[in-house]
Amino acid sequence: MAGDRGEKSEPGRICWGQDVGEWWGDTALAEKAQRLLGRRHPVAVVATVSRERVVVAGWGADPGDDFEVGSISKGITGLLYRDAVERGGVQGRTTLGELLPLPKDCAVAGIQLEALSQHRSGLPGLPRVRGPVRRSLKLWWSGANPYGDSLEDLIRQAQQVRLRGSLRPHYSNFGFELLGHALAKHAGTTYPELVQERIAAPLGLKSWYLPATWSDLRASSITGRSRRGRSRAAWTGEALGPAGGLRSTIGDLAELTRALLEERVNGVSALDPVARFAEGARIGAAWITVEHQGRAITWHNGGTGGFRSWLGIDREAGVGVALVSATAIPVDRTGFRLLTDL
User: Fold this and answer.
1) SS3 state of residue 33
2) 101: in domain
3) Whole-angstrom Cα distance, residue 133 to residue 126?
4) Does any domain span residue 4?
5) Which of 46, 200, 230, 296 suits a disulfide with 33, CB 3.0-4.6 Å?
6) In the chain, what is the straight-line distance between the N-terminal and C-terminal CA atoms, in Å?
7) In degrees to the nearest 10, what's the CA dihedral of 54, 208, 307, 266?
């Protein structure tokens, strides 16, 4: 198993350590993370990042397996948004109607990109036309993928959606779906290709991909499970990508975390909190910053039918944590604990 790779770590290199029982990677990190998560997380991977090294561990899966990271995908879309603004061609006040094929009299056409990036566009979490309640019930009963819409579906749904009366922050998957695909249209490409060109390839993240259908899944893809341990269908879908469609290995999530800390990823200004999001929290472009035990933590989490994820950094201290479980039970508390212990 890949856990046999070098016991010693070098600055800027991943320290895999040795296999111990069902663990692989750094035994101290594996033991601590497993103890904090508890027995209901039989498959999980974790990485801690500091200025000196990256340490990775896991159990129940191999180091090369890829996981759904859920809404951490929004953090990637936030990076792409800020990168597009900094490169020129779009601005915060650029509207969806300028980038996507939407009728001028469509309410969604007038929404500005900056509002989308801060969850204050007035869009619902998901449009009623998508039947979110019905899809959620199918997920609960049979594990069916509640997503799977095409880009054509997304544009059609956008023409029928009604905006909320208030523009106060309201978390919206639909909004980030539209934001990501609008940025891709502006760049003359698709969203998966934009992620590869601007984020994954420059950082060498070879495991990243965004499956549109089941046939796109790789042999390395892990199957997630519900809170009760039932298998859950993979969340695939072209429309979903910018809001929750990314898959990654823990090694590549660790490299992203390091790149965020070292500010060598395109669009890193997305981390800078510029607006109020909720009580005690501020938001940049998708990324949320909170005060936790006297430290400013910038983070995003993710959740799909069978996975939970968390990625957080303390920019001042230069440390970060990435954590993914293949069980749909929240991992946020463990992520914060591991980070503050660094």
Assistant:
1) helix
2) yes
3) 10
4) no
5) 46
6) 28
7) 70
Note whether residue 10 is domain-resident. Answer: no
- CATH code (residue 263): 3.40.710.10
Written as tens digits, the pLDDT of the chain (342 aa) is 333 323 333 334 454 444 434 899 999 999 999 999 999 999 999 999 998 899 999 999 999 999 999 999 999 999 999 999 999 989 999 999 999 999 999 999 999 999 999 999 999 998 888 888 888 887 778 778 888 999 999 999 999 999 987 778 999 999 999 999 999 999 999 999 999 999 999 999 999 999 999 999 999 999 999 999 999 999 999 999 999 999 999 999 999 999 999 999 999 999 999 999 999 999 999 999 999 999 999 999 999 999 999 999 999 999 999 999 999 999 999 999 999 999
Q: Which domain range does residue 213 map to?
A: 67-341
C-alpha span between 247 and 274 (Å, rounded): 28
In DSSP terms, which residues pair with 295 in a beta bridge?
Answer: 292
- Of 186, 176, 204, 182, the closest CA to residue 286 belongs to 176
From CA 342, how far away is CA 339, in angstroms rounded? 5
Which amino acid would we find at residue 104? K
Query: What is the CB neighbour count within 10 angstroms for residue 293?
Result: 9
In a domain, 251, yes or no: yes
Helices 72-87 and 173-187, packing angle to 10 deg:
40
How far, in Å, CA of 281 to CA of 295, rounded?
Answer: 13
How many domains is the chain built from? 1
Rounded-to-integer distance, Cα 83 and Cα 200, Å: 14
